[in-house]
Amino acid sequence: MTTAHFVKPDWFTRNVLNPTVAWLARRNVSLAGSRVLAVRGRKSGEWRRTPVNPLPHGGERYLVAPRGHVQWTHNMRAAGGGELHKGKHVERFTAIELSDAEKPEVLRVYIKKWGWEIGAFFKGLSEKSTDAELLAAAPKYPVFRITEDSTR
Predict the structure, then answer these.
(1) Residues 144, 72: contact at Cβ < 8 Å?
(2) Which of 72, 83, 97, 116 has its CA 20 to 30 A from that of 146?
(3) What CA–CA distance (Å, rounded) separates 54 from 138?
(4) 3-state class (DSSP) for residue 28
(5) What is the pLDDT of residues 32-53, one digit of tens each?
(6) Residue 22 and residue 34 in contact, taking contact as beta carbons nearer than 8 Å
(7) The domain that contains 55 carries what CATH number?
(8) pTM of the shown model
């Protein structure tokens, strides 16, 4: 698995957009389903938080990393799960990373739902991309299937 693809957030995203989305989520306001992901750091063991867009599809839920192999994806692999926060509601979950072959349909649906926000990270791809195009891009975008876990 390649971990080279990573799109660093710009100043506006780091200092305005992400903190605003997180602030809203902490107050039980979700922008089109957004949540705050909390996952334990793989080295520090401390909770790390970032806004995410969980994707319901086909009776399952997924977390897609449109910026590529970022810190939360490395932490998720190590931790095997985390928490989604909205207001005082905390949903604990386990996560299983999808193989590249499993990603095309999830990526297509994710781009269709969230393209207005994250489309710039999927350069050359759209909801109308072929399976072959999405499969070729799949190694760049980690995707995790998440399931509720009351034991975490």
Answers:
(1) no
(2) 116
(3) 18
(4) coil
(5) 678 999 999 999 999 999 989 9
(6) no
(7) 2.30.110.10
(8) 0.84
